[in-house]
Each structure stands twice: as C-alpha cells, then as structure tokens.
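In this section we walk through a basic example: taking a raw amino acid sequence and producing a predicted 3D structure, encoded as discrete structure tokens. The instruction is simple. Fold the sequence below.
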Amino acid sequence: MNLKQELQQLNNRLDKLRRKLAGAKDRGDQAIAGQAMQEIETITKKINQVKGQKQRQLSKQSGDVKSLAFKRALTKAEQADMGKLKKSVKGLVVVHPMTALGREMGLKEVTGFAPKAF
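The resulting token sequence is shown next.
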C-alpha cells in the first residue's frame, strides 16, 4: 500500500472515531469516550508519521530531479505534443508547478529536466 492510500485510510478511521466520540459524549458513556480519545491520539500520531515520511520521499525525489544536468521551461507547443518531446529526449522528466513535486521545487512554469541539453 502506498503512502497516499495509507494516509486516506487513517483519515477515514480518524473521522469515524470522532463521530463515535461525539455519540458517546451525547449518551454520557465515559468508558467508550475515553477509549475513543486514546485511539484518536494514536491515529493522529500515525498520521503525522506518514505525512513526515511522505514529505521525506518528496524531498528525495525533488533532489533527484534537480540533480539532472539540464533544465528549461517548456514552450506551449512542446507541452501540446508531450509524446513527441519525450520520445526525442532520452531521460526527460517533466514537472508541472501545480503537482506536489512542482510545489516542493518552487516552480512557476512547466519545466523539463534532462541529463543532456534539449
């Protein structure tokens, strides 16, 4: 299971536990409320761990892409025919500024990274 799926499952469990806690408080059931609070704390810690792991993975990927020797912004014509561009440039990595990787790298426009000039 990848980190995105694991994070989604944990958030779903957290949401269910919060609803369970609200119901237990409405009924005045202290035992179930206390148990739900403990589970909420453990799941919150787990969510923070997964988010940290995801951030480290993204930083590593960003470093790998930045280490490629050549980079430049792609023109609109190149973006329109991405298949042709990727076939002509060996090892091309295209990063869009709205993706998580693009935000991590601080890009403002669609940029291509490659081992050689293109």
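Looking at the output, two observations stand out. The beta strands are 70-73, 93-95, 111-114. The mean pLDDT is 94. In the next section we compare this with other chains.
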